[in-house]
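User: Can you help me understand a structure? I only have the sequence.
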Amino acid sequence: MKVQDVISQRNLVLLRELVKTDFKLRYQGSILGYLWSILKPLLMFAIMYVVFVHFLKFGADVPHFAVALLLGQILWSFFVEATGQGMRAIVDRGDLLRKISFPKYIVVLSATAGALINLVINLGVVLVFAFINGVDFQWHILLAPLLIIELYIFSLGLAFGLSALYVRFRDVGQIWDVLMQGAYFATPIFYPITMIMSVSTLAAQILMLNPVAQIIQDARHLIISTDNVTIWQISPWYIAILPFVLIVAISIFSGFYFKKHSKRFAEIF
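Assistant: Let's start by predicting it. Here is the structure, written out as tokens:
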């Protein structure tokens, strides 16, 4: 067996163990344990449903908007969790990095992989809820995993860049939390994009340039109902591809930035 193969297997084993450890520690000491990975988004959905759907009547023109609301909340929660956990991964694992020599990217990868496990579990809940709600699944639901891959690549790319910045500037964590709060309200999660379109089509087009907004709407379109408007339906193709261009550009830049600064991580701690 080649030395490179041995190193690759060691890294895979280390990645698996880090993911398992992170997942166990996340709910250590709680009575409900792993059930919180399902209960947290469901409780948030219940609050949003009562306020925005029951009282404010958002999404009355969108079929199965309650399911769309749950799906949007779960996808957004994954994005926040993956980028937040990934951003703090290097600092949180500083002791391990000083003791053992291994590729630093594994730490960030393990943090985002843990969030991905939660996402897969929660998507199962969405499908059950959609079935109970009477959603008529079509063949194009099979394309939905491509959107999950797109969302994971975007989250991972951001996590790499943020983690490298966070090692040097801890203020990045506070700034990112504020940005996520603002971005949440600028993303069509608890309100349908058609509500924005009724006021300004241009505003809707701008909001949909956010890759997470594009992914959420595309997921709703494929899984729940084709009545959910996508960026492809409200923008010309050369505008509609911008979220994908942004994902690629951010991922490449973040990857290079992380690689450039990762050799000095141990010196900064």
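Now, to help you interpret it: Residues 14-268 form one domain. The CA atoms of residues 89 and 100 lie 15 Å apart. Let me know which part you'd like to focus on.
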